[in-house]
């Protein structure tokens, strides 16, 4: 018996990996958070799974009890996690419980909201000469934050920022970022990326708060900040530069006559 922490991706079932879908479909017990994962993701198992649990209203003790019962019956469990399980998926505390119970588990990665949102915007987040670093973080709320990881400290890098779980505090985020990025810094806010009702808005640190409020985004939104979102002033990378050799490509010099 194994518990599979499956990255369900950002919402669109077509963005789940082949391994994720195949694993989910062979598990008799399926757990997913309906508040974070659209119902279409589990459509393929509705008629085959023995039991499907929406964990949105369940606590850790309750979900662990379901898994423990499945383990006693020798039944594999698909534990769906939105996006990629390694990022804000709270799998650490679940794994700790499983190890204490000596229950086997496996983690299957998924497409993150950051990757899907960049695709929605048709943007590259790492442009040569603009930014080569993406910092994924969240805004300080109930979860304790070390001083070195608070937004003003991270903003000193000037890197591209992907801020999760901060949409209700976007006015505070803007206040903390303007001293480091400037009011004209591009911002994109992506709402429920890849869901049927996905939406997004782009602007700058100077006007993004008003634009977000006009859209009425209040949850399930990713905030992207950085010059890479609106610039043509970047260099070609060395990856395909005909003047740069690497292990798979040599420079072919023309012969002198």
Automatic annotation (TrEMBL):
<dbReference type="GO" id="GO:0046026">
    <property type="term" value="F:precorrin-4 C11-methyltransferase activity"/>
</dbReference>
<protein>
    <submittedName>
        <fullName>Precorrin-4/cobalt-precorrin-4 C11-methyltransferase</fullName>
    </submittedName>
</protein>
<dbReference type="InterPro" id="IPR050161">
    <property type="entry name" value="Siro_Cobalamin_biosynth"/>
</dbReference>
<feature type="domain" description="Tetrapyrrole methylase">
    <location>
        <begin position="2"/>
        <end position="208"/>
    </location>
</feature>
<dbReference type="InterPro" id="IPR014776">
    <property type="entry name" value="4pyrrole_Mease_sub2"/>
</dbReference>
<dbReference type="InterPro" id="IPR003043">
    <property type="entry name" value="Uropor_MeTrfase_CS"/>
</dbReference>
<dbReference type="Pfam" id="PF00590">
    <property type="entry name" value="TP_methylase"/>
</dbReference>
<keyword id="KW-0489">Methyltransferase</keyword>
<dbReference type="InterPro" id="IPR006362">
    <property type="entry name" value="Cbl_synth_CobM/CibF"/>
</dbReference>
<comment type="similarity">
    <text>Belongs to the precorrin methyltransferase family.</text>
</comment>
<dbReference type="InterPro" id="IPR035996">
    <property type="entry name" value="4pyrrol_Methylase_sf"/>
</dbReference>
<keyword id="KW-0169">Cobalamin biosynthesis</keyword>
<dbReference type="GO" id="GO:0009236">
    <property type="term" value="P:cobalamin biosynthetic process"/>
</dbReference>
<keyword id="KW-0949">S-adenosyl-L-methionine</keyword>
<dbReference type="GO" id="GO:0032259">
    <property type="term" value="P:methylation"/>
</dbReference>
<dbReference type="InterPro" id="IPR014777">
    <property type="entry name" value="4pyrrole_Mease_sub1"/>
</dbReference>
<keyword id="KW-0808">Transferase</keyword>
<comment type="pathway">
    <text>Cofactor biosynthesis; adenosylcobalamin biosynthesis.</text>
</comment>
<dbReference type="InterPro" id="IPR000878">
    <property type="entry name" value="4pyrrol_Mease"/>
</dbReference>
